[in-house]
Amino acid sequence: MSNKMTEGEAAKAVVRRNTEEVQGRGNYELFDELFADAFLDHTPQPNCTPDKAGALGLYKTLRAAFPDFHADIHWQRADGDVVTTFKTYHGTHEGTVFGIAPTGRKIHFETVDAMRVQDGKITEHWGVANLFSLLQQLGAWPPSHA
């Protein structure tokens, strides 16, 4: 068996570094290294551009709102150069987000995303985040009465 890392394993490592070091620790120099200049987000968040600058802006907005923002990666799967990750983000609401003033509440929300990694750089993103749950936790949406 070869010691050479497979394309999928290498791609998973790039995505994991982005989640842990860029999103989780605010290492924006690494962001610039990990994201291709021609990066395209197929599912940008509201008021975010679908490019590299938009992704960086979103990351900075989240860290400003949740200074301890970090994720638990539950699993990753690679299909060629596309990595799908299921994770739960955590943080303490200490800055304004979505127009909601800081509440001091600890929050968490689940995300599933797919990122294409080519030549060691993230080139594309598709994702779904449970922002409805986040809004409920911040008191911006009535709680469910299940």
TrEMBL record:
Signal peptide: none annotated. This is Ester cyclase. It comes from the Bacteria. Coiled coil: none annotated. Transmembrane segments: none annotated. It holds the Pfam family SnoaL. InterPro entries: Cyclase_SnoaL-like, NTF2-like_dom_sf.
